[in-house]
Specification:
alpha/beta, Metallo-beta-lactamase, Chain A, 7-stranded mixed sheet, 10 helices, globular, binds zinc ion
């Protein structure tokens, strides 16, 4: 077949490699482009859109060698606020339990029904204690079954409502996350009872808290710093910042770390805030690890404000925190169970629900449970 194309018999396959290797200006140009494209990889790793979080190198330590917050130590109000508050605490025995959360009667049956259904679920035991069930794993947040959170059992703040689930009715607990060493969050009698019930239960604690557990015979303890993660079966446990402080004796202020926790798996992503004032860390954690299917957030112990502002959120701040974290559901806890602060017992849940009802459609759904209630999520 004839053709007028003079090149018809001279077409040679284009050898790209040979061209780039032999054509020096082109080679330099392409190498520069390749380097430019790879630059984010060298600087930020493979998550170019997520620069390393401020907590990547662990919690800050101050010049005295004790832990502190990103913003420094938190304020607890002047003596003119603190002293009257302490005096009011002595009246705690006289305070009625009007407004304390209701307790559901068939809590154990409801929990069992959910276990049978195999749904991801959360149960409110009371205060900050929740049982979370995701990816076939059961874990507890800051478990406290004791009647009083106190170094002197007879003198501490009273418990208004009994735990929603008995220790006996709990499923096998795979692990526990502890936020800090205040007595209403790190309850030794409960931890010892849980370890006795199942010696395989792992206790994840922020830096410096392991010693206390080990001294009390608990061996499966993992200490983590802010920004550290560890695998538990098919889940990842993340130790993260909170804005708080620690103290258990007269001489140990801030010698052990406080933290919040995220537990992420293929099925669900959960965040537990522990105790915290409202701080920019929520936005950063949300950006790094969110969105979360469930955020468990403290909404009580905010009054008097001048004293609690930096260490405890009010219900509106707690709702904002859940929004910052990219929560789908926000479960309010840390209210109504122990007599810890001045606000009326029924105020935190009401304000939390009100805040949620006026929020936009994209905002978290605020959840307030009765004690012992289980919901799937
Ligand atoms: Zn605390």
């Amino acid at each position: 077949m004839g053709t007028d194309n003079p090149w018809a018999n001279q077409i040679v396959p284009f050898n790209a490699c040979a061209f780039f290797v032999t054509n020096r200006p082109t080679r330099h140009y392409l190498l520069s482009i390749a380097l430019l494209l790879l630059l984010p990889e060298f600087i930020w790793g493979n998550e170019a859109t997520k620069p390393a979080p401020s907590y990547a190198n662990g919690a800050p330590v101050d010049s005295n060698g004790v832990f502190t917050n990103d913003k420094g130590d938190i304020a607890h109000g002047s003596a003119s606020v603190r002293v009257p508050f302490m005096l009011r605490r002595f009246g705690t025995y006289l305070r009625s339990d009007k407004g304390a959360p209701e307790q559901i009667q068939d809590a154990a049956a409801q929990l069992q029904a959910n276990i049978q259904a195999g749904q991801p679920a959360v149960t409110w035991v009371g205060h900050s204690t929740t049982l979370v069930q995701i990816d076939g794993i059961n874990f507890l947040t800051d478990p406290i079954w004791s009647k009083r959170p106190s170094p002197v059992p007879l003198l501490g703040p009273r418990r208004y409502v009994a735990p929603g689930i008995t220790l006996e009715d709990l499923p096998v607990i795979d692990f526990v996350v502890i936020s800090h060493n205040h007595y209403d969050h790190l309850d030794l009698p409960t931890l010892v009872a849980l370890a006795k019930k199942n010696p395989q239960t792992v206790f994840f604690v922020p830096m410096g808290n392991g010693k206390l557990l080990r001294e009390n015979g608990i061996t499966e303890v993992v200490e983590l710093d802010w920004g550290q993660t560890t695998a538990y079966k098919n889940l990842t446990v993340h130790c993260l910042p909170s804005q708080h402080w620690s103290k258990r004796t007269l001489t140990d202020t801030n010698k052990t770390l406080w933290a919040s926790w995220a537990v992420t798996g293929g099925e669900r992503r959960v965040y537990y805030a522990g105790d915290s004032g409202y701080f920019p860390g929520f936005t950063e954690i949300g950006r790094q690890l969110g969105p979360f299917d469930l955020v468990i957030v403290p909404i009580g112990a905010y009054a008097p404000r001048a004293m609690m502002l930096e260490s405890h959120m009010n219900p509106e701040e707690a709702f904002d925190a859940a929004s910052d974290l990219g929560a789908s559901k926000a479960l309010g806890v840390h209210f109504g169970t122990f007599d810890l602060s001045d606000e009326p017992l029924a105020e935190p849940p009401q304000r939390f629900l009100n805040t949620g009802s006026s929020a936009t459609a994209a905002a978290p759904t605020p959840w307030i449970f009765k004690i012992g209630e289980t919901r799937s999520f």
